[in-house]
Structures are given as C-alpha cells and as structure tokens.
Write a structure and sequence with these properties.
By secondary structure, this protein is an alpha/beta fold. Helices cover about 55% and strands about 10% of the residues. A four-stranded parallel beta sheet has the order 1-2-4-7. It has a three-stranded mixed beta sheet with strand order 3-5-6.
Length: about 210
C-alpha cells in the first residue's frame, strides 16, 4: 500500500476549523477524534507493508499517519514534518508520543514534543524520522520501489517479522491504551481555546 497526499499538504490530520465549529458538543468531538485514531490504527494494523509518500507538509495528525507506516519517503524540498500539537494548545497523547520515540529515540522525541518542533525534510531524514528523500514529484515512485523490493523476500517470514517488530506500535494505539478522552478534556481549557482561535485567525477562518 502507498499512502500519499497532495504537493502542498500531505495531511494536516484533524480538521481544526471543523472541530471548532462543534463548540461544546463533546460527543461530536469524541467521534471526530475516534475517526482519526481509527485511521491511524488501520495503518498500524495493515496486514501488508505500507509506504508513505510525502510531497507536502505533514504536521500533527499528518505526522501521526506517517509514523504508522513502514517506510517514509519525503520530497527533498522545503517541506516540514512534526508533532506541533503544543503550538495549538493540545497535549500529545502517550500513544502518539510512543510512535515518535520508537522512531527517533526517547530524548530527541521528548525535546521535539515539548516545543512542538517541525523539521524540514533533510533534517527529518538525518534523524531517522523519514527513511528516504526523493526528487520532488517522485516520492510515490520511490515508495513503490521500496515495496517492490520486499517482493523478493520469502513472503511468510517477512510478514511475520514485520508483525512482531510492529507489535509495540499496535499496542500503543489500541483503544485500551490510547486515552481518547485526553484531547476531549483538554479541548475546553482556556489555553487550548486561545491557541486554536489564533490558528483559525492565521488560516483566515476565524
């Protein structure tokens, strides 16, 4: 499977203007967050390898989706990836923090999460956040080439090894481990609402 987005934004994750339009409807907010994490779990639990091709920015939820994939390819361009939730007033759930720690290491992940750091493609590659850089416009082809390279391996042991190595991620995102109520609790906090309103103003959707 190849996961791809458009050249400007690979994926921004959750639709903040839509979430803000829900007001204090906690059930609707919960449904939106559940839908997003269901998508992340679908990638984590996919029975075959998934490569992601990013030609555009991958902030917040977009980064989460990318971290759920087996292989990450990013265009060698001035585009960024990262978990910038603290910038919009949200704490990063433990299950999501686990995804970043398993990818770039505990201490580096801790520092990036705290400040909501976004890094450009070359730095992301240097720290192991993405696995390969591609000429702009060729990320999907690079992702597909990696998947095709797996076809030369004996299928059953390759898939079994993959399943074992990804078990920690699947567990971290499981409904029993991922506290879906955390963002719902945080949503109405004055700091969160102030940061979200500032984001909407920046987007021109206030």
């Amino acid at each position: 499977v190849v996961l791809a987005g458009n050249p400007k934004i690979f994926s921004a994750g959750l639709d903040v203007p839509y979430l803000m339009s829900l007001g204090d409807d906690r059930d609707a907010l919960r449904d939106a967050w559940q839908a997003f994490f269901s998508a992340a779990r679908a990638l984590a639990n996919c029975p075959v390898p998934v490569a992601v091709a990013m030609e555009g920015h991958a902030p917040a939820g977009g980064c989460v989706l990318a971290l759920c994939c087996d292989h990450r390819v990013m265009a060698d361009a001035p585009i960024q990836i990262g978990l910038n939730e603290t910038h919009v007033g949200l704490a990063v759930p433990e299950g999501v923090q686990h995804l970043l720690r398993r990818t770039i290491g505990h201490r580096r992940a801790e520092r990036m999460l705290l400040v909501g750091a976004m890094v450009e493609a070359r730095e992301a590659h240097a720290i192991g956040m993405v696995d390969a850089l591609a000429t702009p416009g060729e990320a999907e082809a690079e992702a597909l080439a990696w998947l095709e390279s797996l076809e030369r391996l004996p299928r059953a042991p390759m898939l079994a090894t993959r399943s074992l190595s990804r078990a920690d991620m699947v567990h971290a995102l499981s409904p029993g481990e991922l506290d879906i109520e955390q963002p719902i609790r945080d949503w109405s906090h004055p700091d969160t609402q102030q940061a979200l309103r500032a984001l909407l103003a920046k987007l021109g959707k206030a």
